[in-house]
């Protein structure tokens, strides 16, 4: 469904019911579809919601407004609009940084009262993300080209996925708006929100693929953990960056363990 949230139309997937809500956010160049298998796993017990962030998937793509706090405000407004009370926020890669901003509170909103914990999958760090300049430029120059999207898929996965999943990953990459793509690479990924991390008073649980070539495990060790007080880190052996696509069963088990199922 599409809902008018924070002044723009966001596409939101929803399954299940329950007193606790799991909100899922996707990676840069991805969409809410990466969470469908995970949502189906938990929908018998929980309300599960996945959001296409602005400029991604089937959500509206405004010309501007793609800062980390802009996206965090969207998430907070989703919580308000859908009358969500107790919830856990699950962020992947780019949206891991967004989730940290939600938990810390933005200039426009405090941290939502019902937020119980963060589960972060290979999150972008609160410091500027360590993307080499030549790679950043290549991503900017080649966006929208199928060949580049296929190369990206190869670079950020370590476990083979089906042809259908490969095509969905490529399609999500290609349909990401130019405004969202450019804004993350030139601004959002470079933001430093470390000064706000001390405000996070809830548990943060992180998992990363041991063969993640986009945000390797040492990024979490050196660029994320030092800024958080109540945090755990685990690795999924042999997996790359796209854990919801590569190892959904293992990721579901990680989530279940952290929410006490």
UniProtKB/TrEMBL annotation:
UniProt keyword annotations, A-Z: Hydrolase
Domain AB hydrolase-1, first and last residues per copy: 22-253
Keyword Hydrolase among UniProt keywords: yes
Highest taxon above the source species: Bacteria
InterPro entries xrefs: AB_hydrolase_1, AB_hydrolase_fold, AB_hydrolase_sf, Epox_hydrolase-like
Entry GO CC: membrane
Pfam families: Abhydrolase_6
Molecular function GO terms recorded: hydrolase activity
Keyword presence, DNA repair: no
Protein name, entry field: Alpha/beta hydrolase
């Amino acid at each position: 469904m599409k809902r008018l949230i924070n002044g723009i139309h966001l596409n939101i997937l929803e399954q299940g019911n329950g007193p606790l809500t799991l909100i899922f956010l996707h990676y840069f160049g991805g969409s809410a579809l990466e969470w469908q298998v995970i949502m189906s796993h938990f929908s018998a017990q929980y309300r599960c919601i996945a959001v296409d962030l602005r400029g991604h998937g089937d959500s509206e793509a405004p010309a501007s407004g793609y800062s980390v706090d802009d996206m965090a405000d969207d998430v907070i407004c989703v919580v308000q609009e859908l009358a969500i009370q107790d919830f856990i926020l699950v962020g992947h890669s780019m949206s891991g940084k967004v989730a940290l901003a939600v938990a810390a509170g933005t200039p426009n909103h405090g941290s939502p009262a019902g937020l119980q914990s963060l589960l972060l999958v290979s999150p972008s760090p609160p410091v500027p993300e360590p993307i080499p300049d030549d790679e950043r430029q290549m991503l900017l120059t080649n966006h929208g080209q199928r060949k580049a999207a296929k190369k990206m898929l190869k670079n950020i996965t370590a476990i083979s996925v089906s042809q259908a999943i490969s095509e969905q990953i490529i399609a999500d990459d290609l349909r990401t708006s130019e405004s969202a793509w450019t804004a993350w690479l030139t601004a959002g990924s470079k933001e430093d929100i470390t000064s706000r991390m001390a405000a996070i008073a809830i548990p943060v649980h992180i998992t990363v693929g041991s063969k993640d070539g986009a945000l390797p495990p040492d990024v979490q060790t050196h660029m994320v953990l030092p800024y958080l007080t109540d945090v755990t880190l685990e690795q999924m052996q042999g997996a790359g960056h796209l854990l919801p696509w590569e190892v959904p069963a293992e990721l579901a088990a990680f989530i279940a363990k952290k929410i006490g199922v």
